[in-house]
Amino acid sequence: MKLTQKDKELIKQAKALVGKKNVSGGVVKEVGSALLTKNNQIFTGVSLDLWCGIGFCAEHSAISNMISHTDETEIKTIIAFGDRIMYPCGRCREMMELINKNNRNNTEVIISQVKKVKLKELLPGEWM
Questions:
Q1: Which segments of the chain have a pLDDT < 70?
Q2: What is the pTM of this model?
């Protein structure tokens, strides 16, 4: 699928969050994420890569922000940006589906400057 103007705005927002910073226990803000909800609200988040495996991906942060500030769980579009547009990891893909089963078929994941795909194209077969 081709990107819309709104998708391009999400890319800009995610990219603007990136500003790698070393902290006493690891690295933060190496990746930024922006998502658009089904009801057209935008939420953002950054990665926390901390020692001992503590921390989470930028997508987790954006999703947590959405859930913290609304009752929404349906994601219309999501983007992760580090040094480039990134595919979400397997844990992020599963999380998107686990918070709302409709996300599997409806969520669009931006995977490049010109393309997005449905979340279901990035997931293995259903297990639940």
A1: 127-128
A2: 0.95
